[in-house]
Amino acid sequence: MTGNRVIIQNATLVNEGQSFRASVLVENGRIAEIARETELPVHDGDELVDGSDCLLLPGIIDEHVHMRDPGLTHKATMESETRAAARGGVTTVLDMPNVVPQTTTLQLLKERYALAEGRCHVNYGFYLGATNDNIEDIKRLDPTTCPGVKLFMGSSTGNMLVDREEALRNIFRDSPTLIMTHCEDTARINANMAAVKKQYGEDPDVRFHPVVRDQEACYQSTALAVRLAKEEGSRLHVAHVTTAKELELFLPNDDKITAEACVPHLLFTDKDYETLGSRIKCNPAIKTSEDRDALRKALSDGRIRTIATDHAPHLLSEKQGGCCKAMSGMPMVQFSLPAVLGLMDEGILSKERVVELMCHNPARLYHIKERGFIREGYWADLILVRRKPWTLTTDCIESLCRWSPLEGRTLGWQVERTWVNGNLVWDGTSVSQQCEGNRVIFEC
C-alpha cells in the first residue's frame, strides 16, 4: 500500500477462536491496529469501510491448487486463477508441480517463481515435485522457499509417480520440509479398471469412478505413507482424504501427521454422478454419503487439519466421457469459502472452526510468515463476507475454463471485499487490474 490508510469499522472479527465486534486499521500493507468493541478515529484521507453486519476474516490460504501455468495455459493461467481466488476471498495459493515442464528440479522451481512475479492477484508459493530419481534436489531444497515436497504415491502421469520403495523411503527420510502426499494404490486401481472395462467397455460410465478408485485403494496407500512417516520421523500431510477408513489413521491434533479435506469431497457424494456426471470426476474419487459424513465430522474433532480445494481447472470439452476419457479435476477456488460457510449454516462446523481450518492451520502447518491471522504487524490479507443469498451463474466465474460444478446453486454468503497485502483486489464488483500478490515466505 502506498501511504493511504484503510479503516474497517464495526465488523464481526473472527480470529483465533473468538468472534467480536472490532475495527481494524490497515496501513502500509499491514494490520496497524485492532480496536475491540469500539471504533477507530478517522482522519482526513483515510478510506473508511463499514463492516456492519459482515464477518471480517483472515484471507483464506488454499494450500492445494493447480494453476496450470506454464505449459497448460489453454485451460488456466496464474493470472486467471488468482483472479478467481481474489474474488472468492482466497489471498494465498500454494500451487502444485504437475505442470509442463513438471517442477521437479530446483532450477525449474526457481523459474516458476520468476514466472509468477507480477502476474498473481494473490500471494503464492510453489511445491517441489518428487520423482523416483530427484532425491538430491529434495535434499538441497531450502525450506524457506517452498511449502513442501509433493509426492504422488499413485494416480499420476509422466515421471511423477513414485512407486519404488527405496525412493519413497529416501524421500521420507531426507526431505527437509513437509511432505504432501497424493495417496491411491496404483496396482489396485489398475486391477479395478480392468475388471470394470471387461464388464462395461473401454470407457465405463463415470458413476463407476469410485468403484475403480475405491476406498481400499486410498486406505492402502495412506496407510503406507503414515507408516513411512512414523518410521522416518517425517512431517506428513495427506492431501484430499476421502474415506472414513483413512480417518482411522489420524490422531486428533497431531502436529507431525496431518490430513486435508477438499471441498468437493465435503459437498458431493456418489449419488451426484447421476446429475453432475463427469463435472465432479476427480482423483481421489468422490465416494459415499457415509464417507462424506465422516469427513464432515472430522472437521471438528481434530483429525482433519485443513480444508483446501484441489482447484483443478479443465475445459468442459476435456471433461467429456466416462471413467477413462473424461479428465479428472474441477475448478473450485472461487467458491470454496461460500460453500464451506454453507456447511456452517447447516451446523456442521462453527465460523471459528472455518477460520481455523482455512486460515490458521494452513499458516501453522506450512510455517507461513506473518499471514493467516488477524494480528497487529501481520500482512493485511483480509476479507469481508456478508450473509446474502445469490445464485451461481456462468457470468460470475473468473476461472479461464468458465464453468463450475456448483452452477445453479444458491449460496448463502458473498465475499464483499478482499485485501491482499493491504491492497483492495476485489471490491464486490470487479477484481483489480493490478497484480498485488507476493511470494510467500516460509519460516523454518
Describe the protein in words:
The chain is of the alpha/beta class and 444 residues long. The protein has a domain at 60-365: Metal-dependent hydrolases (TIM Barrel). The chain contains 13 helices and 17 strands. Strands 1, 2, 3, 4, 5, 15, 16 and 17 form an eight-stranded mixed beta sheet that branches. Strands 9-10-11-12-13-14 form a six-stranded parallel beta sheet. Strand 10, helix 4 and strand 11 (179-182) form a beta-alpha-beta unit. The mean pLDDT is 96.
Provide keyphrases for this structure:
444 residues; 13 helices; eight-stranded mixed β-sheet; alpha/beta; TIM Barrel; 28% helix
What is this entry, summarized?
The protein is of the alpha/beta class. The protein has a domain at 60-365: TIM Barrel.
Low-confidence stretches: none
Counting helices, strands and paired strands, the structural category is alpha/beta
Beta-sheet strand percentage? 15-25%
Give the overall silhouette. globular
Helix count, DSSP H or I runs of 4 or more residues: 13
Overall pLDDT level: 96
Q: What integer value in Å does the Rg equal?
A: 21 Å
Question: What characterizes the major β-sheet?
Answer: 8 strands, mixed
Cα separation of the termini: 27 Å
Question: What is the CATH level 1 assignment of the domain at 60-365?
Answer: Alpha Beta
Per CATH, the architecture of the domain at 60-365 is Alpha-Beta Barrel
Annotated CATH homologous superfamily of the domain at 60-365: Metal-dependent hydrolases
Q: What do we call the CATH topology of the domain at 60-365? A: TIM Barrel
N to C succession of SSEs: EEEEEEHEHEEHEHEHHHEHEHHHEHHEEE
Q: What helical percentage do the residues reach? A: 25-40%
**Record field, number of beta strands:** 17
